[in-house]
Amino acid sequence: MGYRAAALLMLLLAPSRPVAAQQGPATVLIVRQAGREIGREEFTLASGRARGAAGSTLTAAAKYPPTAPTTRLAAVLEQTPDKALAKFQLDVESPAGTTVILAAGSGARLIVRTVAKGSESGRELPGGPDVVLLDEQVYSLLSQVADLATPAGRPLTAIYPRTGRRLALNARRDQAGEGGATRTVVSGDLSGTVLTDPAGRVVKVELPGQDIVVQRAE
After folding, report:
1. For each of the chain's 218 residues, which pLDDT tens digit applies?
2. Residue 105: which of 122, 88, 93 has the closest Cα?
3. Got the DSSP string for 42-64?
4. In a 10 Å sphere around its CB, with 0-12 CB exposed, 13-18 middle and 19+ buried, how is residue 164 labelled?
5. List of residues 6+ apart from 143 with CB closer than 8 A
6. How far is it, in rounded angstroms, from Cα 118 to Cα 154?
7. If residue 148 lies in a helix (H) or strand (E), which one and from where to where?
8. Of the chain's two ends, which shows fewer C-beta atoms within 10 Å, N or C?
9. What's the rounded Cα separation, in Å, for the pair 158 and 131?
10. Exposed, middle or buried: residue 69 (CB in 10 Å: 0-12, 13-18, 19+)?
11. What are the C-alpha distances in Å from 168 to residues 53, 112, 144, 152?
């Protein structure tokens, strides 16, 4: 393992300190599939990162189903001021046990470490400014796609660290929606739309191929 990869792994192992900036009220998302509520997610988006660094921090918690959940997820995404990945953590609690996934990026490299009961593994993957880390059950992470979208469309690579999926996307920023929201059209291996408010928070997600609609609770 090279010096840079070793340094990134040390970053993954380092404890995070609370973000200095105020987070404000949390946003609640209702996840529906075929019209039936299957989960809920609550997230905050704050300026600033751990250890006083500049950028932003997204903190999310999701549960499936919304009552008496069998799966709980907690995600933290830190991004630099230019929206590059700084650090990512995803904790998953399910009947199979607890899994913790940590990732950090630097240049063209992405270091991913997975810790589960009785096992631990590390991977080095291609990274870069066009790579986003997503999860099938944490929809606020799609704000990364909206952040990087352009009016002409921008090719992106989505990595799902929990399942190992790797998707090729195109993110095109469409005309503004209601209330100053921005609409992003996603095509490629994942098709749908992402609506974000002026602060960059996910308001609504539609994934027709999965019959999923995620919408902010009123």
Report:
1. 443 444 444 445 454 444 444 456 899 999 999 999 999 999 999 999 988 889 999 999 999 999 999 999 999 999 999 888 889 999 999 998 999 999 987 678 889 999 988 888 888 888 888 999 999 999 999 999 999 999 999 999 999 999 889 999 999 998 766 678 899 999 999 999 999 999 999 999 999 999 999 999 98
2. 88
3. EEEEEES-GGG-SSEEEEEEEEE
4. exposed
5. 45, 58, 194, 196, 200, 201, 202
6. 40
7. helix 143-148
8. C
9. 6
10. middle
11. 30, 19, 14, 16
Using omega within 30 degrees of 0 as the cis cutoff, is the peptide bond preceding 65 cis? yes
Number of H helices, E strands in the chain: 2, 15
Closest to 144 measured CA to CA, from 76, 78, 83, 212: 83
* pTM assigned to the model: 0.88
The two tokens of residue 57 are 């921090």
**Two tokens, residue 120:** 């631990």
148, amino acid identity: L
